[in-house]
Structure formats: C-alpha cells, structure tokens
C-alpha cells in the first residue's frame, strides 16, 4: 500500500488544535488523530492529492479543534485562570488598546486623523478660493474667467487653478463605458499642489495647446479597473465619449478635498461645459510667502472687478487648506485635552493618594477618550469637507455633539467601572451574592455583595429603600486569600 503524507494545511490544523489539549492527554490525543488521518487517507481514493480531496481532509481535521476544546473544558483550571486574568485591570487597558487597533485597521490606519494632524502642524500656503454672495453661500462657485485672470495677474499669489467635479462615461473604448466620477482641472492644478505621480507625469502648463486630450488616472481606478498595469502610459481610453491619452497615474496618498475621481482631464475655458452654464467650478491657489489671506482677498476682488465688472458684487474668500483639513484637530483637540486634564484631576482625587489607582483610572480615561476622538474624526463626519472646500455646518455640529456625548459616556463608564473594582488590586469584583429582601425587612440591610477575586475584601452595595449605606467596603485579612483563590478556581 502506498503511504500518503498528511497535507500541510491539515498538519497545521492538528498542530494548532493540540495547543488547546491539556498536557497529560496531549500525546494520546495526537496518536488518535494521526490514526484518524491515516484511516482517512487509506480509505478515500485520491485522498490528500487533488485540491478538492485536500480540502475535504482539512475540513475533517477541523473536528480536532472541537475535540480539543471539549477536552480543555473538562480541565477547568486554565479557564479559571483565564477568568482571573480577565478581571485584572491590565485586561481593561489591553481591551481599550485592542479597540484602538481595530479602529485603526478599519479606518485605513487613522487616515483622516493623520491628514488633519499633518495639515494642522504644517500650515502651507495652499488655499481654496471661493466666492460668497450676499444671499448664497460657498456653493456659488467661481467663474472660470476670473480664475484664469487671477492666475495671470495676481501679485499676491503664485498661481491659481480651476477644478470641477462631474460624472463621466469612462471605459476602454466608447462602446464599453461605465459611469464614474471625473474631474476637469486647470493645467497648473497639479503643479500648484506639488504632486509627484506614481507613474508617467501630471499636466504641464502647455498641455492645453499640445495635449488637450491627455488624462491622468486616479490610483484606485488604475489599480482596480486596469489591474495596476505599469505600461499604461501612452494607452488610449474613452472619456466623455472621446478618445483620451493616458499620461500618468496619481499616487495612492494623493488627496484633494475628499474627491476620488477615476480620471482627471484638462479644463479648457473656451470649450468645457459649453451649453452647461450652471456647472459649479472651484478654485485653488498658492499664496506667495508672507502674504496673509485678507491681503490676497482684497487683490483678487479688485482683479475680479476688472474681468467681470457686472459680477463684482460677490466677495472673494481665500481659505487656507490647513484650516479646512486641520479643522477636526483645531475644534476637537482642545476639547479632548480639556477632558484629559479633568480626568487627571479626577484620577488624583478618586485615587486618594494611591499612585497605582490614579494611574489606572487616568490611563483608562485617556484611552477611552482617544477612542471617542478617533471614532468622531474617522467615522463621525468631523473630517468631512464639501468638494468646493466648504465645511457643512450639519457635519460639524453633529460630530461635535457625537464627541461630547461620547465623552460623557466615557466619564460615566470610567466611574462605574472604578466602583466595581477592588481598591487594593483593582480587579473587577466578582461572585455576586444577594443579601436580604428590601420589601420585607424594614430596618435590615438588603443589597448585593461582591468580592475581590483575590480575597482582598468584599463590597456591599445597597439598593432602594434599604437602611444600609450605598457602598461599604470590608477588607479581609490575609487568611482569606487562599480560600478565595481556590474558590475562584473551582
Ligand atoms: Zn483585590
């Protein structure tokens, strides 16, 4: 008979399961399962060779894990040890750190928080140029003619470029297209943003003349739809129903106001959107070093009057990009810091000169407040900006409310958790025992008694109309400890 070697995945499953088996039973358990696999391999035709057969054997070996878990549950000591570990204060802190790690993984490594911090710490000279009328907000957009004029004549700016988002039909050729988000930008747009592409190049100032049908691809579109093809530059795709030549692909890290267009093409003031007068266009500019936004606003407004005298009633706003993107840190950061200070003072008071107690309470509060902060920034809309660089009031107010409510919840949870812990070892109190019956006994105590799992003492908490004090801690002397620990293990 031919000997069949146990496939790798099945061997790994058996090895993993054997870790769970109590030590005295391990050798015998392993012999039994080796026999099981041998029987499987010798009775099934083609066992362990074809992928399908290997999969079937692996599924059979999964039974080893259930088997090992069963043996483990019969041996109760490790479970009791695990339970004791679960009640320890370090488990509480480790749980919070784990929660932070999980949020980090779910948010692409704290994407919004990192960006907000980077912009907040390093204010640049990039600014969103917008117009506000007396009745309309930032939704008004900026007329392309003004942006071109500012780009040429503004002395306070190094340049200005237009951008506009829309939905386009994009595909391999004009017969196979999909509806995708797209952008049209001025030729100086990427240069102003100091963008270096992943492959190829981005638009140059003379592309409007020499390369009007050139497009730059967004990283996600290139990766997901075009299989991250490194030789994509020079190929033709269909954009807006016309053939377009790919000249480059943007980097994965490239970010601009939360928009993620599949393709970027050139905005030609003479041709783009002819017949679509209501398209909203935004503008970006770079301030010259040392120029304050109000000075640039005055100059841009004067220039706007020269190019479009009839529309000169609108105000021009120059909003630095770091103010827009760093806003979550600027608004929620001080609130977080205030709560951390309050938690510090609270921990000193509640800790009653016990260093370990104060440190635990403070660490727990800071970690939980940080969880609330990053959840608000990553998922709570605190980092959301409109595609014209505006900040929606609703998103700002909702995220602030979310943060305040979350912090209130954290304060309440920290206090309640602290009340349920042993003052000596900070373990969570366990083994609840009900004492008395409040409805029947007028002057007797009724409530619940909890004990420290390590035997440091018991906590009595009264309820309702009982005559007993709300909280009463009774310390137990050392002779009780062994009794408690052995009780916890059975
Ligand atoms: Zn204790």
Taking the alpha carbons of the first and last residues, their distance comes to: 50 Å
Main sheet, how many strands, which sense, barrel?
A: 6 strands, mixed, barrel
Mean pLDDT: 79
State Rg.
33 Å
Secondary structure class reads alpha+beta
Strand order across the largest sheet: 2-3-8-5-7-6
Structural shape: flat
Bound molecule types: zinc ion
Q: Which percent range describes the beta-strand content?
A: 15-25%
Number of strands: 14
Considering DSSP H and I runs of 4 or more, what fraction of the residues is helical? 40-55%
Number of helices: 16
| Unreliable segments of 5+ consecutive residues | none
SSE run: HHHHHHEHEEHEHEHEEEEHEHHHHEEEEH
What would you note in describing this structure?
This protein is 47% helix and 18% strand. The chain has helices spanning 8-20, 23-43, 51-74, 77-87, 89-106, 111-121, 144-153, 189-192, 207-210, 219-225, 293-307, 321-325, 327-351, 355-378, 393-419, 481-489, and strands spanning 126-132, 157-173, 176-185, 199-200, 214-217, 236-239, 242-249, 263-266, 282-287, 315-320, 430-435, 447-451, 457-462, 471-475. The strands form two sheets. A six-stranded mixed β-barrel has the order 2-3-8-5-7-6. The model has no long low-confidence stretch (mean pLDDT 79). Zinc ion (ZN) is lined by residues 422, 424-425, 427, 452, 454, 456. Zinc ion binds at residues 422, 424-425, 427, 452, 454, 456.
């Amino acid at each position: 008979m031919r000997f069949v070697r146990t496939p790798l995945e099945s061997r790994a499953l058996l090895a993993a399961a054997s870790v769970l088996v109590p030590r005295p039973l391990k050798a015998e358990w392993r012999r039994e399962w080796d026999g099981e696999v041998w029987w499987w391999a010798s009775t099934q035709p083609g066992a362990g060779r074809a992928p399908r057969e290997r999969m079937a054997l692996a599924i059979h070996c999964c039974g080893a894990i259930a088997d090992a878990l069963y043996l483990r549950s019969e041996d109760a000591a490790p479970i009791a040890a695990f339970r004791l570990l679960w009640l320890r204060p370090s488990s509480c802190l480790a749980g919070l750190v784990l929660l932070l790690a999980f949020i980090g993984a779910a948010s692409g490594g704290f994407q919004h928080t990192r960006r907000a911090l980077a912009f907040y710490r390093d204010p640049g000279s990039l600014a969103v140029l917008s117009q506000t009328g007396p009745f309309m907000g930032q939704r008004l957009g900026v007329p392309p003619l003004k942006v071109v004029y500012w780009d040429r004549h503004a002395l306070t700016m190094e340049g200005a470029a237009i951008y506009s988002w829309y939905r386009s039909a994009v595909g391999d050729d004009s017969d196979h297209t999909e509806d995708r988000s797209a952008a049209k930008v001025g030729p100086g747009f990427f240069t102003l943003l100091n963008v270096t592409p992943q492959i190829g190049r981005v638009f140059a100032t003379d592309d409007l003349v020499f390369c009007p049908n050139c497009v730059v691809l967004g990283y996600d579109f290139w990766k997901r739809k075009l299989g991250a093809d490194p030789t994509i530059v020079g190929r033709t795709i269909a954009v807006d129903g016309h053939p377009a030549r790919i000249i480059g692909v943007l980097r994965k890290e490239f970010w601009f106001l939360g928009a993620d267009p599949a393709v970027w093409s050139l905005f030609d003031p003479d041709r783009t959107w002819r017949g679509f007068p209501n398209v909203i266009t935004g503008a970006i500019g770079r301030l010259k070093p040392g120029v304050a936004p109000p000075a640039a606003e005055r100059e841009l407004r004067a220039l706007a009057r020269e190019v479009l005298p009839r529309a000169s009633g609108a105000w021009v706003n120059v909003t630095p990009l770091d103010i827009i993107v760093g806003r979550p840190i600027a608004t929620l950061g001080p609130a977080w810091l205030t709560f951390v200070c309050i938690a510090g003072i609270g921990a000193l008071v509640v800790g009653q000169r016990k260093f370990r107690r104060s440190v635990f309470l403070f660490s727990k509060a800071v970690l939980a407040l940080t969880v609330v902060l990053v959840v608000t920034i990553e998922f709570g809309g605190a980092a959301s900006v409109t595609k014209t660089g505006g900040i929606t009031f609703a998103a700002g107010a909702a995220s602030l409310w979310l943060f305040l409510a979350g912090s209130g919840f954290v304060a309440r949870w920290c206090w309640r958790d602290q009340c349920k812990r042993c003052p000596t070892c900070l373990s969570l109190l366990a083994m609840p025992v009900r004492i008395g019956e409040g409805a029947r006994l007028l002057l007797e105590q009724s409530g619940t008694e909890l004990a420290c799992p390590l035997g440091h003492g018991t906590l009595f908490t009264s309820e309702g109309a009982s005559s007993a004090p709300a909280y009463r801690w009774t310390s137990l002397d050392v002779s009780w400890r062994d009794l408690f620990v052995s009780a916890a293990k059975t």
